[in-house]
UniProtKB/TrEMBL annotation, chain B:
CDD domains: ABC_MalK_N (cd03301). Residues 4-234 form the ABC transporter domain. GO terms for cellular component: ATP-binding cassette (ABC) transporter complex, substrate-binding subunit-containing; maltose transport complex. InterPro entries: AAA+_ATPase, ABC_transporter-like_ATP-bd, ABC_transporter-like_CS, ABC_transpr_MalK-like, ABC_transpr_MalK/UgpC-like, Mo/tungstate-bd_C_term_dom, NA-bd_OB-fold, OB_MalK-like. Keywords: ATP-binding, Cell inner membrane, Cell membrane, Membrane, Nucleotide-binding, Transport. GO terms for molecular function: ABC-type maltose transporter activity; ATP binding; ATP hydrolysis activity. Belongs to the ABC transporter superfamily. The keyword Cell inner membrane applies. This is sn-glycerol-3-phosphate ABC transporter ATP-binding protein UgpC. PANTHER family: MALTODEXTRIN IMPORT ATP-BINDING PROTEIN MSMX, MALTOSE_MALTODEXTRIN IMPORT ATP-BINDING PROTEIN MALK. It holds the Pfam family OB_MalK. The lineage of its organism: Bacteria, Pseudomonadati, Pseudomonadota, Alphaproteobacteria, Rhodobacterales. It comes from Kangsaoukella pontilimi.
Amino acid sequence: MAETQTMPAARPVSTRRNTTFFSRNKLVIMPLVFIAPALAMFSLFVIWPILQSISLSFTEWQGIGPKKWVGLSNYRYLFSDPVFWTSLVNNIYWLVLFLLAPVFGLLVALFLNQTVFGIRLVKSLFFFPFVVSQIVVGLVFAWFYDPAFGLLATILEPFGIEFPPILADEDWATFGIIVAGLWPQTAYCMILYLTGLNSVNPEMIEAARLDGAKGWRLLVKIVLPQLRAATFIALVVTVIGALRSFDLVAVMTEGGPYNSSNVLAYYMYDNAIFRYRMGYASAIATVLFMIMNVYIIWFLLRLWKNEKGAR
Amino acid sequence: MADVVLKDVRKSFGAVDVIKGVDLEAKHGEFVVFVGPSGCGKSTLLRMICGLEKITSGQLLIGDEDMSDVEASDRGTAMVFQSYALYPHMSVADNMSFGLRMAKTPQKVVESRVKKAAEILQITHLLDRKPKDMSGGQRQRVAIGRAIVREPKVFLFDEPLSNLDAELRVQMRVELSKLHNEIGATMIYVTHDQVEAMTMADKIVVLRDGRIEQIGSPLDLYMSPDNKFVAGFIGSPRMNFLRAQIVGSANGHAQVSVPDAPDHVLHIPLRDAADVSTGQEVTIGIRPEHFLGTPEGPGLKVTIDVVENLGGIAYAYGRTNAMQDVILKAESETPPRSGMAVTASINDAYCHLFDKEGRTLSTSAGAIRSQDAAA
């Protein structure tokens, strides 16, 4: 930046013609002009609500009426709330198990990345859950799990196995929802990996084959390093997706039974909308936001480093 | 030693036959070039030798061993690809040593081989770099280095120079020839560029449509092509082809008249006098440099369209009265100008004669001369 500003000064011949402030600082002003609308919108609809939520978390408020400043008492209450801890642990389950999505996605992508008759149809079938709304996914899986007439119960019945009512079981409800969530998430990762595989030079794979790399070693040493960008995005999207899991919980169990399948995002919603505890909900939101920040900052740092490397 | 022998090798993709029966022998240490227009199957043939494509039928021997069904990595071949196909996430040294490490070669051997190959190719200073930080020519060297460290019996090159700019291509051509002399291994090289074939090969294999059209030394192919296709493909600028007619034959020579040069009857020596009959429609072929530079007298009347002056020589592109395209070699210092009408007298000692199917009927003086030189 400093260089671009001093350049006209170093060449007096060109300054004689372009003397307006704008023409001299064009390289600084124009980017700002282009960024400004997005920046304004982002500040208004993202930054400002974040700040508002954080400040709200220090108050007690029913949504209408006066706000009462309570300091850190929402947080104090939060950390002694067993439902908060259940939700947090569930979120960790989500996070860990959701990491299977990139793995499955890669496997499916490797399977689909071949030229066989009809592979396009198969690809679009695998793509399908990604297009479907999360609500629909939740409903479909809820029907799968239905202990009376559900798909799984019906399949297992002839074998004399009674399918347990997963979503009504405190120990299993969360995992039942996570499996449902993995379905579209795997499809998403698969798309990322398919695009990545498309850009791998086939001659390089052949060279590796001539070099004696086969199967697992070919995948790990040659193919996977080419998919680093895809893996990075898949990881970030999956982690964020796991932390903000909400709609599936809302549709399938509403956090139950006895809050055993609750997650932070749903608990926040529950407190705000059904219990009118805006301050408390904001405190949950703030905690969730801080956890996410860890990943977002990691993501931004990586992105920044890559950008620098590309220059 | 490491001869490469192909016996009636065929390849089909489904119902499409790509290689239609190839018999070929590359002796140990020979530099063999496969050349042909795109789609002729030359790359497929190379990929069959290295094992990237299965051989549908026939036999492949490398150094007397049947390799037809052996894994690509166990055939003792190494390939250099057109796109270099380097591993972008590895340093040059890792790129070159990857194959050896896959084969669990002791670390010391790996290091010394990489070092030696890097010295041969003068890329020692690049060993720690990543492919993306190198120029095309440097990447090409690394790709060749990756082949060298494996110490293969046979080197395979798939159009390795076509991604380089013209100047670098000439330089790499010379270096590859030098490398071949230095290493002495069998090399098989695929190109569509007949200049590369002419300059580098001990033996050229001209392919068309999955079949071998002719095998021979560069000069053989240039001087006595077996058919019109080879005649047209080898040589740059290409050979001129003119419609002509047999007007008689005597003493093993055909008397040929060219409609565009009615005052000049050519006497062309024949391979077999029984092949021709009076009145037969034929094609004569003559290279741009084999016209005699006489401004007057009998010959082909040519109107010049364009002159390309290369400094050392010039080529004039023109048309005969019957609108047949002709290329003439000309003096670069006194080239003809476009629009000029010139008389090109045909040197019948260097004339080739082809029948309607494109088979060569003549045995040109040039061919006799090159055979004398070989003997």
